[in-house]
Design brief:
Blueprint (H helix, E strand, L loop, with lengths): L7 H5 L3 E4 L12 H19 L5 E5 L27 H16 L5 E6 L1 E3 L1 H5 L9 H5 L6 E6 H13 L6 E4 L2 E4 H16 L1
Parallel strand pairs: 1-2, 2-3, 3-6, 4-5
Antiparallel strand pairs: 5-7
Helix pairs in contact: 2-3
Length: 196
């Protein structure tokens, strides 16, 4: 993502650009790679787009940049975190989001905030200790509420943002609110129903 010269021609010839590049390795305790991809990579893309004639940038952030809400549903006007120093992924996504917002007057941009993205195929094709969200769900209160969006719904939402989204708007992309305990139970049901 930092070598923008490798795709500069494609950008110049495009009307629309999706920026989904991200580093999200939860086992990496150092911020270096998070910063290189999530912040510096975003800066490189934005610098390239300023001199292009694109009609729209669709930028994928994360719903994790919002302040925690507990069980309260939130919308796009909910306050953002000011820092997430204990989470390199969220911290660098906050920094990248600031950059994207600084360029919004120069680049027509729609910002999307997906919640936890789940590919049902990953649930079906995994053993019980490897399906999506298992580690996140094993830590903390089992009654806490999470929100997830299926991968197909995310893709449809990204397409809608391209054709229907307003370039000054932000959209949270979520699906179901569910307790961690019920998510684990439902994921097991999906796995067992397919394997029978």
């Amino acid at each position: 993502i930092l070598n923008t010269h490798t795709f500069q021609k494609e950008i110049k010839e495009s009307d629309y650009v999706y920026h989904l590049a991200v580093y999200q390795n939860l086992t990496d305790s150092k911020i270096d790679e998070f910063n290189r991809v999530n912040v510096l990579g975003t800066q490189s893309i934005l610098n390239l787009l300023v001199s292009s004639n694109i009609k729209r940038l669709i930028y994928l952030s994360t719903a994790m940049v919002f302040e925690p809400t507990g069980n309260t549903p939130r919308n796009e006007s909910w306050p953002k975190r000011t820092s997430a120093s204990k989470n390199n992924y969220v911290e660098t996504k906050l920094q990248a989001l600031k950059l994207v917002n600084q360029y919004r007057s120069k680049i027509p941009t729609v910002i999307l905030y997906p919640t936890v993205v789940i590919n049902p195929e990953d649930i079906i094709n995994s053993n019980s200790w490897r399906f999506p969200g298992i580690i996140m769900c094993m830590v903390g209160d089992k009654k806490r509420v999470i929100n997830y969006i299926f991968l197909d719904d995310l893709i449809n939402s990204m397409t809608n943002a391209l054709y229907r989204g307003n370039t000054s708007d932000n959209y949270i992309l979520g699906g179901e609110n569910i307790t961690v305990e019920n998510y684990l139970r439902e994921a097991e049901k999906i796995r067992h129903s397919i394997s029978l």
